[in-house]
Amino acid sequence: MQELAIYGGTRVIQPEEVRSWPPVDKSDEELVLDALYAKNQTRGKHNLELEKEFAAWNGNSHALFTNSGTAALHMCIAGCGIGAGDHVLVTAYSWSSSATCILHHDALPIFIDIDFDTFLIDPDKIEAAITPRTRAIIVVQLHGLCADMDAVNAIAAKHNLYVIEDACQAHGATYKGRKAGTMGHCAAFSLNQNKCLSSGEGGIFVTDDEEIYRNACKLWSFGETARPEQARDYHAYALGWMYRNNELTAAFARAQLKKYDYYFDTLRANGDYLQDNLGGIKGLLQPYVPVDCVHNWYNYNLRIDFDALGISDNRPSFRDAVCAAIAAEGVACSVWQRFILPEMTVFQAKNAYGHGYPWSIPGADEGIDYTLENYPNALRYSECHMSMVQTLRAPNGLDIAAKVVAAIRKVFDNIGRVDPDRILQESK
Ligand SMILES: Cc1ncc(COP(=O)(O)O)c(C=O)c1O
């Protein structure tokens, strides 16, 4: 039995073998230099072209380039006309801003538990949470897997609710052949450093709806009503933010988008390789992908089956130690979110802007209960999952994917030797 790298054994993957993300070449240099030497460094040709190219690539009528995915999510909320005291349903397990974007417009999140196998919003739990205050459902296409959109859209249509897709991690993922970001009223993508499509930072808002687009435009640029290609009059017709992005970043995003098919195919091949080669390991649950979905493998998530390993105490510590042992073998393995959303202080305190606002809006807080036991699947998932991200991204190919499999197998072959006290103490 080979010694684990975390205890001083030889790593399966050496640091120099894994190439960094995102790959940059001459095509990026050319477009970024073109932007750098242009007269206009704020919005210009590259912003407008990126918006057209992204909309065409994803199949949307409108796209707006923003300075973050969070800005694009806030634009979704405002675009749908959601306002003070409204309720918006959102999954209990996601990135913080999947839910704080609701607070940005003085509305209140109502959390819905996840399905443990898909880690996505459980459509069967949505209807019980709908009240006369409910205006929208935010569906997070988490880790690059799409939720059961037919089920969500049917509930939304029945109750006259907007559907907002948080597609920040889901570039290119599909459900029944439809792309993430085309299945609700509007959607947000992120282009931050870790995303499958990256320009360092940035986001893209998309919609096919003219009115939502107009509302989103206002929020995006100081409350002005000029569309992106029109001359501005610098008048605040509504409360707006400054959510636009610049030419250098737009040029980088355009260059990366041109390579997206290659990135997507590489990640798909690597993720599928892991699916085919990590079966039958005691104590390890592989990702579950419904037949209707094409996962983009933004995050390849494994779960520890504690019952199969006979572990009942300090489960999160055991998971952290396994994760550290895999990382020590050279795989970028981490815990993606160890908190569920309702656990975060801003929600437990019910205070975003001081004075308990927006929960203190008369009547708005009625029936809102963020007790953690309401979300058993999200809690269970947050304790047992591990995420693998960048090791599987282009230009790393199947040779690296094979080593990832070897590293994970090595740790699970030695699972009896994984000692959280020793490992977590040493990593402090
Ligand atoms: C699911 C999800 N939603 C929203 C965001 C926010 O994106 P950004 O970091 O670009 O604001 C992220 C990114 O971290 C995310 O993963």
What would you note in describing this structure?
The longest helix is centred in the middle third of the chain and has 18 residues, at 260-277. Helix 3 packs across helix 4 and helix 3 packs across helix 6 (210-220). With 428 residues, the protein is of the alpha/beta class. It is built from 14 helices and 14 strands. The protein is globular, with a radius of gyration of 22 Å. Helices cover 35% and strands 13% of the residues. The strands form 3 sheets. The chain has a 7-stranded mixed sheet, sandwiched between helices. It has helices at residues 26-36, 45-58, 69-79, 97-103, 149-159, 210-220, 247-258, 260-277, 306-309, 315-328, 345-348, 376-384, 398-413, 420-426, and strands spanning 62-66, 87-91, 108-112, 134-140, 162-166, 174-175, 178-179, 186-190, 203-207, 284-285, 293-294, 300-304, 333-334, 385-388. The two termini are 27 Å apart. It has 2 domains: 26-259, Type I PLP-dependent aspartate aminotransferase-like (Major domain) (Aspartate Aminotransferase, domain 2); 260-337 and 380-426, Aspartate Aminotransferase, domain 1, CATH 3.90.1150.10. Pyridoxal-5'-phosphate (PLP) binds next to helix 3 and helix 4.
